[in-house]
Amino acid sequence: MRLFVALDLPANVRETLALMRGSMPGVQWVPAENHHITLRFIGEITDRHRLEEIDLALSRLAWQPFELSLAKADIREGLTADSLLIGVERTRQLDALQSQIESALRRAGCPPAKRRFQPAITLGHFFPNQRADAIKWVQRHNLFRSKPMSVEHVTLFESLRSLGEHVYVPREEYAWQPEMPLIPEEE
């Protein structure tokens, strides 16, 4: 199983993002049902015991709901293709939740994250020869800002390959638990 932990997006936010795609020849647009905010990529898990440890670790997260907004378009350079992104406004609560997930997964035996946390939603992928069109797309959507959305759970997703495309299947949701003692946030 290829796993990652993410914030799933409400249907209305997915629809809004899907409308931003536009028509850029050669861009491989991410299907709206796959839009999410990755909090931690886990990778391939084949050991059932490790999967149980991950589930237990995520079920013990202690946090309170908070609001999050999306803002601005951007480009992220990749090894083989670049990506069109919508940014996520960083908040103390988002960073604390992501840090707690990282710690929980490391205690569950997962290796440390390979990349620094940079919250964003990938809308599409393009090749460097399409950079001029991508820059125009970013300029067109750079003032985008969503209404705040409530974050009340995180989701463990499995990434499957189907007919050459990725399909992200929610495996488990971990809701905030008011009865759990909060881990103090670092100042």
Automatic annotation (TrEMBL):
It holds the Pfam family LigT_PEase. The keyword Hydrolase applies. The keyword Lyase does not apply. Residues 7-73, 91-160 form the Phosphoesterase HXTX domain. It comes from the Bacteria. Its EC number is 3.1.4.58. Coiled coil: none annotated. One of its GO terms (molecular function) is RNA 2',3'-cyclic 3'-phosphodiesterase activity. NCBIfam families: 2_5_ligase. HAMAP family: RNA_CPDase. Hydrolyzes RNA 2',3'-cyclic phosphodiester to an RNA 2'-phosphomonoester. This is RNA 2',3'-cyclic phosphodiesterase. It comes from Gluconobacter aidae.
